[in-house]
Amino acid sequence: MKRPRQHVMEDASGRLFASLLPGEWIVRTIPKDYGVDYEIELVDQGIVLGDRIWVQLKSTERTKRVVARWPIANRFPDLRSDGDGNITAEYIPYSLGMKEIAYVQRCHFPLLLVVVDLAAEDAYWLPIRDEVDLHHSDLNDRVPRRKSATLRIPLWNSLTEERKRNYSGLRWYALEPGRMYAFATLHHFFHEFQYEGRLSGYSIGDGHIDDGAEVELKRSLAIAREYCEEALKLDVLFGERGIDFFRADQIPVVNAPGLKWQLEHGARAAKKALHALDSNEYTFAGMSILLGRVQQAINLMSTAVSAYQGFKGRFLLTEQTVVWHHWSVQNGRINLQQQR
């Protein structure tokens, strides 16, 4: 009896895929395949972290490569382009059936498509849900008679490149469930403050507040300070496992302070305002500035998840990501993919 070539390829792909991951990571095969082939649990320096990703593995002898182009010469004259004023990026097109896509959209965990290229001895990964939501939003409308959709896997999403970046992309998705919980906590702080605190509408003079509102303001500042300090304890957002563009004092390109910086300054402003109220040593202008900083920190708790969702596009093939990738290489900056 001759063994089917497809079975040989599947076994070879599984071995190659596992070999491209850190040796200490735990690779669990899912025996009954209903859309998930592997569960990967991350381990660092012998510590099992509890962070996981799930993988749908596909095998091919050799992947097809396609070049995508975007006309950017007029909008980004400082970026190098080809002779026609385009920037380019290669990707792997992969057709996925509608039943598989529907299953992924129902999953409440990060499910990645991994396509193993046996000839190249490499594997290429893609967050399926993010790709579908961004490039195939019509699929959520259940377009009739459509049997499949072609997903685009950027070549920079290769596991050999991931190894050079300490698997920052895979770590990003392994942390996503924990980050969603952390964002829910931030949102809770924001909404609770709307009921419990108030930082505007006071009649403030130099060294005094009219209508006996000082007690309410002090209480509001104490709550705001507590929420800012508790938010900063969310390690998957602002700690060692946090998001770099949240933790940065200054975010490159946009030249804006990171969320951690603003929360820290919000907490400090609340503390300084409380001290000023206790000593009656403040001016209208000075107190207004402090209250504005505190309010800004509180407001950012409600928008943090939107910023996070926007940066997730870096793992997909978009003009913005390609522009940033070219800009990073051209200017010798840390590539976007190297961030957590």
Describe the SSE topology.
Elements: H1 5-19, E1 26-29, E2 38-44, E3 47-60, E4 66-71, E5 86-97, H2 98-106, E6 111-117, E7 122-127, H3 128-135, E8 148-154, H4 159-164, H5 168-174, H6 176-196, E9 204-205, E10 208-209, H7 214-231, H8 235-238, H9 244-247, H10 259-279, H11 284-311, H12 319-330
Parallel strand pairs: 3-6
Antiparallel strand pairs: 1-2, 2-3, 4-5, 5-8, 6-7, 9-10
Helix pairs in contact: 6-7, 6-11, 7-10, 7-11, 10-11
Question: Could you describe the 3D structure shown?
Answer:
- This protein has helices at 5-19, 98-106, 128-135, 159-164, 168-174, 176-196, 214-231, 235-238, 244-247, 259-279, 284-311, 319-330; strands at 26-29, 38-44, 47-60, 66-71, 86-97, 111-117, 122-127, 148-154, 204-205, 208-209.
- The protein is of the alpha+beta class.
- The radius of gyration is 25 Å and the shape is elongated.
Task: Write a brief caption for the model.
Helices cover 45% and strands 20% of the residues.
Instruction: Please report which band the strand proportion falls in: under 5%, 5-15%, 15-25%, 25-35%, 35-45% or over 45%.
Output: 15-25%
The poorly predicted ranges are 334-340
How would you state the average pLDDT, rounded? 87
Q: What characterizes the major β-sheet?
A: 5 strands, mixed
Helix content: 40-55%
The total beta strand count reads 10
In what order do the strands lie side by side in the largest sheet? 1-2-3-6-7
Q: Which outline best applies?
A: elongated
How many individual helices?
12
- Termini separation comes to 49 Å
Q: H/E order of the elements?
A: HEEEEEHEEHEHHHEEHHHHHH
Structural class: alpha+beta
The value of Rg in angstroms is 25 Å
